[in-house]
Amino acid sequence: MNRTASIKDVANHASVAVGTVSNVLNYPDRVSQRTKERVLKAIDELGFVRNDAARQLRAGHSRTVGLIVLDVGNPFFTSVVRAAEDAASVHGSAVLLGDSGHDAGREANYIDLFQEQRVQGLLISPVGDVTERLDLLRERGVPTVLVDRLADESRFSSVSVDDDAGGYLAARHLLDTGRRRLAFVGGPTSIRQVSDRLQGAQRAVKEEPDATLEVLTSEGMTVLAGRSVGNMLVERGPEHLPDGIFCANDLLALGVMQSLTMTHTFRIPEDVALIGYDDIDFAVSAVVPLSSIRQPTEALGRTAIELLTEEVESQNATHRAVVFTPELVVRQSTGKA
Amino acid sequence: MNRTASIKDVANHASVAVGTVSNVLNYPDRVSQRTKERVLKAIDELGFVRNDAARQLRAGHSRTVGLIVLDVGNPFFTSVVRAAEDAASVHGSAVLLGDSGHDAGREANYIDLFQEQRVQGLLISPVGDVTERLDLLRERGVPTVLVDRLADESRFSSVSVDDDAGGYLAARHLLDTGRRRLAFVGGPTSIRQVSDRLQGAQRAVKEEPDATLEVLTSEGMTVLAGRSVGNMLVERGPEHLPDGIFCANDLLALGVMQSLTMTHTFRIPEDVALIGYDDIDFAVSAVVPLSSIRQPTEALGRTAIELLTEEVESQNATHRAVVFTPELVVRQSTGKA
DNA sequence: GCGGATATTTGAATCGTTTCATTGGTACGA
DNA sequence: TCGTACCAATGAAACGATTCAAATATCCGC
Q1: What residue ranges do the domains of chain A occupy?
Q2: Please, what is the end-to-end C-alpha distance for chain A in angstroms?
Q3: CB-based contact (8 Å) between B287 and chain A?
């Protein structure tokens, strides 16, 4: 048994026509119970597996959806992927996953590959500005939904999270626990997420006349960058320390926490409250469990598939941009002073 | 322009035969410069994209390889995936990625999907025992390479990492820095990786007559599990503390580190040396940068693709089990006492 | 300008499905 | 017994590429 069995082999083995085998597979109701059983038995005996290439060729479209993310290692995307897979499987389609790794070349490779595969549509968290490329896709009839990026609704559908609202939420929480001398840690500000979160924080601070917000620009969004900001704060001495710190992501916050707790001059949350962003797994297991802002990743993935399905089914070119609001997760690091 | 252009459209537009267009795509040398230009121009003007389903149907096999991992969020697998993708692209194939999430059902879905897609072969980091299923695949002519699992060479090729050697490496390093009262933290011991690493550590300790190894079983492999082991050690008091701790992964080690440094009764590495396993990103940015054992993930991914390619090209059923040796990464946490 | 060798191009056959118009059977009421 | 529905099953056409034997063009030396 060298070659894998074809539908014709099954038909012969069950003494029926190929069309009947196809019907058993795709429209079981059209086939009588008796022949159905006979065909299924033959399928089983020959170990027949449908050749998706042939099916797709005839059908004109595939049952797969392409998903290109910036980094599969990033828990944010991992969760989005998982949700998208689950949502797609409900529709009977599967997700082909591509990891661009923030590299435009890899991204382009995946776009090409998925186009050759004739995916039903594409979900993409784009590297930089690829709108021209995506315009081309749209023209060629490949529906596309942007993920984690707000799109011009006249051209694409998109799902994204409101970073301004997240920033507001974080700062408002610090204010609500009685802090007034706030600091924002993040950088570089050229990153849209950073500037949006800062903007939201500023909006919250303006609501309290006696509150101030200091901006501490970090060099990147890593633990080490957070630690150097933290060290700088420690050197300032207690009297000049903010009493509430909002970090643009959890890694930064963990770094700041390391600096502050290592010296044992300051206590979290008694002297300084600390809140991060993303709610990574490590947040809960930090030395002082870290309050954070959680992004609704499951909803992102699920909705992305839904929007795509809408576009596939209705040919009209109306797009929707769905924006989600993140959620505050309170832990010990922002407990009462 | 509703339907995407086919090779026939291109042929008409360029006034050549379809065979010629195919040759331009697949055997450019067989085509004269003049016609090649004409055809390429037509391809460009029509926005032609090859239909992979048709190609595959005729060719009998695809240019894709299936890769099913236990958890794309795990940095170990992320790195393997990345390396496999790069290695595959050298061979002109692409990787279809599936995430089983340790779920046998999802795994089965992906196996079915990939089989319908007629992937060239399958790389899989299996959930539990799926050897019967994989045997079926093999019978049907889908070459399979096991990833991160040692396989019976009579049945499959595999790539894996020698956890015993890794455990030896870690314990030997602690011994080499003068520690003698060692402790191993990990659990549950039913996990093969845990028991293998412990075994390697025991082997190293036996080499030093005056050295001892205490086994501290943890409840899981998380930061919190590590912290509770750490707290237990702190309560013992300084005189009963080990002077070198080997944790079965970095998360455990970070938890232990949190406990020991929080109390400030013990210093790392002066009082206790600490080494983890996996060399996750967080290891380098821990409060005390953590020594660890790094697994050669790039080599795993690359070699997996190579073994698969071997199986695809040579029909003979000889398999190879390649075992890699991990690597010691020394950082501050195991500095001299 | 010719014969032969080589380089290009042609187009029909083929892969394994799905689709659908057609055929063959069966049941039922008149 | 006939006619009418209805239900199952049939099998040829179609999808869009690749392949390959055959046809044609080009080149070379004499």
Answers
A1: 7-50, 62-162+297-325, 163-295+329-334
A2: 74
A3: yes
- Which of B49, B50, B264 is the best residue to mutate to test the A interface, defined by the most A CB atoms within 10 Å of its own CB? B49
- Whether the CB of B288 is below 8 Å from some CB of chain A: the reply is no
Interface check for A50 against chain B (CB to CB < 8 A): the answer is yes
Per-residue pLDDT of B247-264, as tens digits, reads 999 999 999 999 998 877
CA-to-CA separations, A183 to A38, A214, A237, A274, A276, in angstroms, rounded = 73, 5, 15, 10, 12
B178 class by beta-carbon count within 10 Å (0-12 exposed, 13-18 middle, 19+ buried): exposed
Asked whether the predicted pLDDT for residue A272 surpasses 60, the reply is yes
For residue A1, the model assigns a pLDDT of 42
Domain B7-50 class, CATH top level: mainly alpha
pLDDT of residue B262: 82
| Per-residue pLDDT, A130 | 75
Q: How many CB atoms lie within 10 A of CB B210?
A: 7
Give the pLDDT confidence of A52-61 residue by residue, as tens digits: 999 999 988 8
B225 pLDDT tier (thresholds 50, 70, 90): very high
pLDDT band at A2 (very low <50, low <70, confident <90, very high): low
Residue A141 at interface with chain B, using a CB cutoff of 8 Å: yes
For domain B60-161+297-324, say whether CATH 3.40.50.2300 is its number: yes
pLDDT at B72: 86
pLDDT of residue A316: 67
Instruction: Judge whether residue B58 contacts strand D, using its CB and a 7 Å cut-off.
Output: yes
Q: Is the pLDDT of residue B2 over 60?
A: no
Residue B19 (CA) to nucleotide D29 (C1'), in angstroms, measures: 33
Q: Pick B20 or B312 by higher pLDDT.
A: B20
Q: Are B70 and B102 in contact (CB under 8 A)?
A: yes
Cβ of residue A28 lies below 7 Å from strand C: no
C-beta atoms of B262 and A258 within 8 A: no
Q: Residue B52 is nearest to which of A3, A94, A116, comparing CB atoms? A: A116
Q: Is A49 on the interface with B (CB under 8 A)?
A: yes
Whether nucleic acid strand D comes within 7 Å of the CB of A3, the answer is no
Output the six-digit token pair for B135.
């045997």
Task: Determine whether the distance from the CB of B307 to the nearest atom of strand C is below 7 Å.
Answer: no
Element (H, E) at B204: helix B192-206
Does the fold of domain B163-295+329-334 match that of domain B7-50?
no
Level-2 CATH architecture, domain B163-295+329-334:
3-Layer(aba) Sandwich (3.40)
pLDDT for B3 beyond 90: no
Q: Is residue B9 a contact partner of residue B46, using CB atoms and an 8 Å limit?
A: yes
Chain A residues inside the 8 Å CB shell of B75: 73
Helix (H) or strand (E) holding A324: strand A321-324
Lowest mean pLDDT among A135-144, A195-204, A246-255: A135-144
d(CA A217, CA A205): 18
Residue B220, class by beta-carbon neighbours within 10 Å (0-12 exposed, 13-18 middle, 19+ buried)? Answer: middle
CA-based nearest distance A163→chain B, Å: 23
Q: Domain A62-162+297-325's class? A: alpha beta
A-to-B residue pairs, Cβ atoms closer than 8 angstroms? 112
